[in-house]
């Protein structure tokens, strides 16, 4: 339940940015939101399993490469 709520929250923020013109109109809020929620959940699990800060930052950098370019 908490994970589903987090996905909805991320999707809502992305949709708000689309609506405000901060992200391109063709950005898929549901897909992008689920992707980033999944990355965050995976990073949390990796941290619990002992991943280093450097390893987690590399994952974050890779995920951010998927973020849509500014308008």
Provide a quick synopsis of the model:
The protein contains three helices and no strands. It is an all-alpha fold and 71 residues long.
Blueprint (SSEs and pairs):
Blueprint: H1 2-19, H2 29-48, H3 53-64
Helix pairs in contact: 1-2, 2-3
Q: Which H/E pattern describes the elements?
A: HHH
**Number of DSSP-assigned strands:** 0
Low-confidence stretches: none
Alpha-carbon distance between the termini? 34 Å
Q: What Rg do the Cα atoms give?
A: 13 Å
Global mean pLDDT: 92
Classify the beta-strand content into a percent band. Answer: under 5%
The coarse overall form would be: flat
Query: Which percent bin holds the helix content?
Result: over 70%
Number of helices: 3
């Amino acid at each position: 339940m908490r994970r589903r709520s987090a996905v909805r929250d991320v999707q809502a923020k992305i949709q708000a940015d689309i609506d405000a013109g901060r992200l391109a109109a063709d950005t898929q809020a549901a897909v992008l939101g689920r992707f980033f929620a999944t990355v965050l959940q995976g990073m949390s699990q990796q941290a619990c399993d002992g991943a280093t800060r450097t390893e987690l930052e590399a994952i974050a950098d890779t995920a951010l490469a998927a973020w849509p370019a500014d308008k």
